[in-house]
Amino acid sequence: MERWQKVGIGLALVLLLLQMGVWFPSTQTLNSVEDPIKEEVDFTVEPILGQTDDEGRIKVTFHCQATLTMNGNPNVEWFLIEGRREVASLEGGDAADPCGDTWYLEPGTYTLMTFKTDGIRYDQSIEIHSFEEAVGHFRMGAFFLCLFVAFWKRTVD
Fold this sequence. Notes:
By secondary structure, this protein is an alpha+beta fold. Helix content is 27%, strand content 39%.
């Protein structure tokens, strides 16, 4: 196998791994229905290789579903806090409805505050889509490298 074929195979594998990172973003469980509610959960949003969107943000998907375990208050309330600033919130949501959201956050540490009421549990997780911004630059670099390899004049032995 020629060296250039190995380079092409290596590039294809790197691009496949990057695409897998886009399809399956980093996921962190914040609360689970089986466990008591953690009312304040900290999480950190970090870019891969410093890559963010044009506004310096990273997409974060918040998955949330409340479950009533007994007759209690069905109101769902959560607040996303950065330092002392409220970034997003849901107040008075119905436990029968999904309570998730999509955020575009600057790199940093955030706190999700979920208010506990009797008879309610949460499945909450976040997906940090840090590969989505970085993958575009890698794809472009791989494209130019492929063009270089394809049109490079090879010497015949």
